[in-house]
Amino acid sequence: MFVAETDVLLAPAIRERLADAVADGDTGYFTEIERFAGVCARFYSRFGYEVPEETVVPVNDVGVGVRESLARSLPPGAGVVYTPPVYMPFGPWIRRVGMSPVAVPLLGHDDDNPRLDLPGIEQALHEGARGVLLSHPHNPTGVLHSASELAELAELAERYDAVVVSDEIWAPLTMPGVDFTSFLAVSDTAREVGLAISSASKAFNLAGLKCAFVINGNPGKFAVPRSALSGAVGHFGALAGEAAMTRSLDWLDEMRAALASNLDLMERLLAEHLPRGRWRRPDAGFVAWIDLRAYPGLGDDPAAVFLDEARVALSNGPAFGSEGKGFVRVNFACSEEILTEAFTRMGRVAAAH
């Protein structure tokens, strides 16, 4: 229950499209870049603004999109703000492109109100950082940064001549009744200073097929060319992504409802088996951030204890930054039976400590 993929069958339209491609021997290079960019633009327009097709750059995966966006929009060696506890590769991605990670932790990540530390980000920009790598929806807390926070962040970026790169891979997976707004949708200023990266991979379980896209808020300023990046897109990833974003939206709604049902179950399981655990129901995604510091016997890394003693594999909290000590990240995109078995086992271990 650690790796961020789902225990579900592919949506029927995706299965059919991939099967047809295999039957036709259509296993060559990805070539329909403009067509796929249009599909991405129309799909992403549901998140706050009409995305111009020419601003969409298909890429191999979100990690490539993030690294290339940073490398092509910031000077070498620049400081890049990130917001732990956060997706583990953020720091390595920043370092990989020759830049320096600058940690500005979320405020309230361990209570009911996780939010950006805007004064802390401003201080980092004032001290010389020139980029902000945003996780929105935030992994692992599942929080959506508010439009007002994002608009203020955009103003800070403009003031300090900085760039915001927003990893929005979880955007399609908001809980029922919750709306996602892209960073690029919050203001004209956000588009002037920002790029967003997303994919169908998390929502539709397509990560292994290698396809994502960058939305370049300001193509006149940021050099993120299709010619240099889109040739590495997986052909099957593009075929599956198009089937996902055009013909699988009802399936996506069913998936979101199923995840919400699992959250209801997990709330009951926590109360029964880990009653001292604390959490905030995520707004989006299929991972939950659970605070187990009230079980001191589990130590700084409860996931290690659960793996060793309960044979339940979770994501290790400290891997998300020092703010994650005493926490675990749980993937709840599985069957009710597996979820129940996992919490039953973990409850027995916690009680023994």
Topology:
Elements: H1 12-23, H2 33-44, E1 56-59, H3 62-73, E2 79-82, H4 90-96, E3 100-103, H5 118-126, E4 131-135, H6 147-159, E5 163-167, H7 188-193, E6 194-198, H8 201-204, E7 212-216, H9 226-229, H10 235-247, H11 249-273, E8 278-279, E9 287-291, H12 302-310, E10 315-316, E11 327-331, H13 336-352
Parallel strand pairs: 2-3, 2-4, 4-5, 5-6
Antiparallel strand pairs: 1-7, 6-7, 8-9, 9-11, 10-11
Helix pairs in contact: 1-10, 2-10, 5-6, 11-13, 12-13
Helix content: 40-55%
Radius of gyration based on Cα positions: 20 Å
The description of the largest β-sheet is: 7 strands, mixed
Strand order of the largest sheet: 1-7-6-5-4-2-3
The fraction of residues in strands falls at 5-15%
Helix/strand-derived class?
A: alpha/beta
Strand tally is 11
Q: Can you give the mean pLDDT? A: 97
- Cα distance spanning the termini: 22 Å
The helix-strand sequence is HHEHEHEHEHEHEHEHHHEEHEEH
Commentary on this structure:
This protein has helices spanning 12-23, 33-44, 62-73, 90-96, 118-126, 147-159, 188-193, 201-204, 226-229, 235-247, 249-273, 302-310, 336-352, and strands spanning 56-59, 79-82, 100-103, 131-135, 163-167, 194-198, 212-216, 278-279, 287-291, 315-316, 327-331. The chain has a seven-stranded mixed beta sheet with strand order 1-7-6-5-4-2-3, with helices on both faces. A four-stranded antiparallel beta sheet has the order 8-9-11-10, with helices on one face. The model has no long low-confidence stretch (mean pLDDT 97). The protein has 353 residues and is of the alpha/beta class. Helix 7 (188-193) links the parallel strand 5 (163-167) and strand 6.
